[in-house]
Amino acid sequence: MRSLKKPLKSYTIWFSQRTGSTLLTKALTSTGIAGNPAELLHFRNPNNITQDGIEKIWEEGTTSNGVFGLKTDLNRKWITSLREFYKLPIEMTEAEVWSSAFPNCQHIWMTRRNKVRLAVSWWRAIVSGEWHRKHGEKPKDVDLIEEYNFNAIHHLFIESTMFEASIEEFFTEAKVVPLTIVYEDFIRDYEGTVLKVLKFLNLPTQNIDISPPYFEQIADDVSEQWVQRYREECQKGWEHIRW
Fold first, then answer.
1. CA pair distance 122, 152, nearest whole angstrom
2. pLDDT of residue 4
3. CB 208 within 8 A of CB 38
4. Which 3 state secondary structure label does DSSP give 109?
5. What's the gap between Cα 31 and its chain centre?
6. How far apart are CA 204 and CA 187, in angstroms?
7. Residue ranges of the chain with pLDDT lower than 70?
8. In this structure, are residues 112 and 184 in contact, taking their beta carbons and an 8 Å threshold?
9. Are 110 and 190 in contact (CB under 8 A)?
10. Cα–Cα 20 to 30 A to 47, which of 25, 76, 226, 241?
11. CA distance 17 to 59
């Protein structure tokens, strides 16, 4: 029978779509000391929590030094189920409930300043089926020009904004100050950002091997055309054009 000790240190990467979270998890995993922060909850049922299941998650996400990493969006079904499973009082904050399963948890928040570009990237991924492109991989041969959809992009723009409002409430309630990773800064300083995360987690930063970026940028001329078209249509009739 497997009997796994709790991780010595845990961290959660909270993300919304198209913020570079998968690129970051690949980089952190490559160090060999920062856990294996995959989407370990994505294909699991939050209504079917067992201790064995939680230990399996620990096993999958923990490196030999006892560091556990996890990447997830804010699915409150998991928090509700964890509260019920551990029989925790309603007075406990959501972050405290989270730490019951993932001990000594630190929090990393992935965001993106330009929500228009985020929404366009998200819609492009939906219609093309290309969510990531590995380094050296050829782009998918698809014609996307006619796939522009103002309403769809606007919905994703609003959805990403509401998501960030939700995660901010999660942090505010528990007085948590996360390490915030901004997509635009991450892309400009890939290695420096990874080292910043390691430092935040109190992990060694000297003599650490960080793999080159696992993915290539997908945005292209079509993406830029959609950005500019959405920008113009969204502000049509405004007295003061903001962008």
1. 10
2. 55
3. no
4. strand
5. 18
6. 22
7. 1-4
8. yes
9. no
10. 25
11. 26
